Amino acid sequence: MKQINTFDMDGVITIGLYPGPDDIIITGRSFEESKETLIYLHNRGIYNAVYFNPLPYDQKDRASSGRHKARIIRMLMDSDVYVQKHFEDDEIQIAAIKESFPNLPIVHIVSNLVNKENVRHACEEVVNELH
After folding, report:
1. Which of 31, 74, 93, 124 is the most exposed place for a label (fewest CB within 10 A)?
2. φ/ψ of residue 92, rounded to 5
C-alpha cells in the first residue's frame, strides 16, 4: 500500500509548506481556477497531482471544499493509497474531513496570511504567463 500525505493549497502550499514528490494536493479551488493554479505550482517546481473542487467558482464555499477534500481522501483510501496525514489551514474544512475520517491526523496550519473566503487567485506572475 502506497503511503502519502495530502496538502491544501491556500494557507498551506502558498505559505511555503511543500508536498513531497508522491504527495497529493487537494484544493478547494474550483476547476475553473486550474490553469492559474498549475502555473503557480509549476513556477515553484511543484508537479504533484492536484484535485480541484468540481463546483464552479461562484458555487463553492468553505464547507463544500471540505466535503470535496473528504471525498478525494475516500477515493484515495479506496484505491489502496494510505493517507498518513492531511495539511490544512481552514477549521471549517478540517471539521468536514474529520466528520468522514475522525482518526486521520490533520496538521492544522494556523496563520493569518491568507483569506479563507472565496477569492480569485491570479497573481502578477500568473497573469503574465496567461497572456
Report:
1. 124
2. -65, -40
